[in-house]
Amino acid sequence: MAKINSNYQKLQAGYLFPEIGKRVRAFASENPTAKIIRLGIGDVVLPLPDPILDAMHKAVDEMGKVESFKGYGPEQGYDFLLQAIASHFKSQGAEVAPDEIFVSDGSKCDTANIQEIFDIDNVIAVTDPVYPVYVDTNVMAGRTGEAENGRYGKLVYMPTTSGNGFDPELPKGKVDLIYLCSPNNPTGAVMPRSSLEKWVAYAKANEAVILFDAAYEAFITEPGLLHSIYEIPGAREVAIEFRSLSKTAGFTGTRCAYTVVPKDIKARNAKGEEVSLHSLWNRRQTTKFNGVSYPIQKAAAAIFTPAGEKAVKANIAYYMENARIIREGLKGAGFTVYGGVNAPYIWLKVPGNLTSWDFFDKLLRESHVVGTPGSGFGTHGEGYFRLSAFGIRENVLEAVARIKSRLKP
Ligand code: PLP
Description:
The strands form five sheets. Strands 2-10-9-8-7-3-6 form a seven-stranded mixed β-sheet, with helices on both faces. A four-stranded antiparallel β-sheet has the order 13-14-17-16. It is built from twelve helices and 17 strands. The chain is globular, with a radius of gyration of 22 Å. It has two domains: 6-47 and 308-406, Aspartate Aminotransferase, domain 1; 52-305, Aspartate Aminotransferase, domain 2, CATH 3.40.640. By secondary structure, the chain is of the alpha/beta class. Helices cover 37% and strands 15% of the residues. The structure holds pyridoxal-5'-phosphate. The site of pyridoxal-5'-phosphate has 14 residues, from helix 4. Pyridoxal-5'-phosphate (PLP) binds next to helix 4.
């Protein structure tokens, strides 16, 4: 009989969202008249803006004519989109060449797949709490050892809590691969320039690689904060950056993202020689990926036109106003809240001695509002709770009003 990859049996149950679903279904069947408001899962609700939709329609029509039909495209993405993305980076103060950009169908896949080009014995550092994809894909690859009390023996965990301003400290020893996410899911925190400088210096000194997930960079509202790690001098030699159009432009269902692997970044082979990560990732993508569809890439390119940019900014402003309503509403009700200024997530301190799951149940029972227990993102997420700003305004207003009137911290 064939044998399985037994690393899969080291995965901890995909417990968080199925368990939320189970508890919400049970509550709904016992309380059929309750109007439940979901601020749990981070999925967008606003439709695609017109300039983006128009570009997609036009591209679909092109596929119906022999003279403009497109078959397989370049695995890395069409040049029109790569050029538009490179110009966008330039406008943000980051130097990225079009052929250093790899267009894909999502940052989930890219942040999951990137570990494939690295040796099995690399030491991996992740924040705690963390976006679970970074951890689980390294478990599947066999880099983490077994889990004990929710933690894998061979991973280096970097606590990010109110104690350190949700800004992870450098590891005590040497690590090889560092996953950073800023603006952060779930804490909503943004790493300041000084921290990113510190991480780039650490990576250089330790020959480490930073895997920088900037899926939420478009939600940064405060001036002076960095959108790209490449705004830091020297980062091109140590960092790979991931960006997604999912939340930025309502592409969670449409699917389009991009990853930057600069030509300057190297890692060593078994003989100790330096090897280009750009060529390894290019080899990986050309072998395993056949590109994002033409109509979707045309729609994505429209995001970077003046009309597209304006429309996308309006949607982001809508979500960030939701974030403000949640943050200020809860603060006014006496809760301690973090995030929600430069990220669409509000990370609140669970009141009293309740666990994250206790608070989940209380919020659902008393306010009929669904959020996400912080403990689902890691041991140091215990005692916290995530609310998402991706909601229809009237639901957000009602959720906050209910929490204020029915729930006391
Ligand atoms: N990275 C982070 C931190 C996320 O929160 C998400 C989605 O929730 C992703 C990546 C994945 O995004 P995509 O829809 O592009 O796969």
